[in-house]
Amino acid sequence: MSLPRAPRLLAALLLAVSALGVQAAGAEPEAPAWSEEPPAIARLLESGYRAELKRQPGVAAAEYCAAARDGSVEGQYRLGRLYLMGQGVARDNQVALTLLSIAAQRGHEKAASLVGGLGVGERLPDCLLTGAAPVVAADVNEVVPHEVVERFVKALPTDKRRHAMLVQKLAPRFKVDPRLALAIVRTESNFDAAARSPKNALGLMQLIPDTAERFGVRDALDPEQNVRGGLAYLRWLLSQFKGDVALAAAAYNAGEGNVLRYKGVPPFAETQEYVRRILTFYRAPRHAETLKG
């Protein structure tokens, strides 16, 4: 005879709790992915992650709840996980199932693996039902954390990871923050050393022939030469625009002449989207100076 729904739900969730308990005892929580989440939400997720590392689950729950209130699938998953384990909040299987099933329905694979075919719960946590999401001050502009970027790099396919590590190694030699350099390469070529654009921009940092010649690159399809040339150009742009990431990124995409002509980010749709992506990945409007390694 099959179990009624409530005992079956409880049994399944207890198995999930057990699995999470083993995970929590044996490993630290994973850093959030380096994604295109709005910076304010990304900072909430990262703050919650750091609180978990410091064994402050109550703080983590508050940060994840704020992210979930703003519609973050990752925030819903992480908050549901805390309710499932009873960390930072009182254990509540119905609330956990509600949050996890919503995240699963929105495509979160880890949430889906926890809830399986159990359906949707019927209760949201109070933190999602009352009060507004915390307002992030406009002048809080911290660069994306190193651990978030490291997790992203480690998850890349082997050849792309090798190229990303090359960028990380060389960037400090040009006094470029590796996180900004990676954001540029991610946006330009997605770490494909053989990338070629319709405008004949080549390689990891998509150097056009004039830029390659300007910075002494003989073979733009050679990964190391390409990265060195691209970093030299990026360093020059950062100096030219006094560390303003948006202007340096705009100049990298559209040329410094256009930035000077328009006295800011040019009104080109491609360039404006390019700058948006770079700022979303890097998070800060000012470049963090990096000493030569």
TrEMBL record:
<dbReference type="GO" id="GO:0016020">
    <property type="term" value="C:membrane"/>
</dbReference>
<feature type="signal peptide">
    <location>
        <begin position="1"/>
        <end position="24"/>
    </location>
</feature>
<dbReference type="InterPro" id="IPR008258">
    <property type="entry name" value="Transglycosylase_SLT_dom_1"/>
</dbReference>
<comment type="similarity">
    <text>Belongs to the transglycosylase Slt family.</text>
</comment>
<dbReference type="GO" id="GO:0008933">
    <property type="term" value="F:peptidoglycan lytic transglycosylase activity"/>
</dbReference>
<protein>
    <submittedName>
        <fullName>Lytic transglycosylase</fullName>
    </submittedName>
</protein>
<dbReference type="Pfam" id="PF08238">
    <property type="entry name" value="Sel1"/>
</dbReference>
<keyword id="KW-0732">Signal</keyword>
<dbReference type="InterPro" id="IPR023346">
    <property type="entry name" value="Lysozyme-like_dom_sf"/>
</dbReference>
<feature type="domain" description="Transglycosylase SLT">
    <location>
        <begin position="166"/>
        <end position="273"/>
    </location>
</feature>
<dbReference type="Pfam" id="PF01464">
    <property type="entry name" value="SLT"/>
</dbReference>
<dbReference type="InterPro" id="IPR006597">
    <property type="entry name" value="Sel1-like"/>
</dbReference>
<dbReference type="InterPro" id="IPR011990">
    <property type="entry name" value="TPR-like_helical_dom_sf"/>
</dbReference>
<dbReference type="GO" id="GO:0000270">
    <property type="term" value="P:peptidoglycan metabolic process"/>
</dbReference>
<dbReference type="InterPro" id="IPR000189">
    <property type="entry name" value="Transglyc_AS"/>
</dbReference>
